[in-house]
Amino acid sequence: METTLFTGDRLIVNRIPVTVAQLQNQSYIPGRGQVIVFKNPLYVPGTGEEYIVKRVIAFAGERVVLKDGQFTVYNTQHPSGFNPDDANHGEPGAFTAGSVDETVQQGTLFVSGDHRAEGYSKDSRNGLGLIPLYDVVGPVTLRIFPFNKVRTF
Asked: Structure pTM?
């Protein structure tokens, strides 16, 4: 998630929206561009990270295309597509490595890190796949450490 977050940062995750949605027998659906924590679908106990932090790019029913280093999301509101990074999410103008043309399945999210160089980290475009809504822990609300970089999300 560099340059937004770095290894070793300490975060506060708001679990309340997920809990409220579950109490209402619904799935929690984060906002586009929101930074979320979710259970790593590739986690094996004793190896790797159990929880991962990424940014929400697209929702169920939306088509995600990654071409020429830019994401484009197609949905009913934007049949011609739009760049989800243009709304001050991610690193505007940053090159995104890879190639994707996928429609997000029901009950899942397409997520990406903010550091999108080839081979740097896994996300929906290169290894993690689509993230089930039931694996979402909650949105990141606050970075509390390092102290000189405290910020809200």
From this structure: 0.87
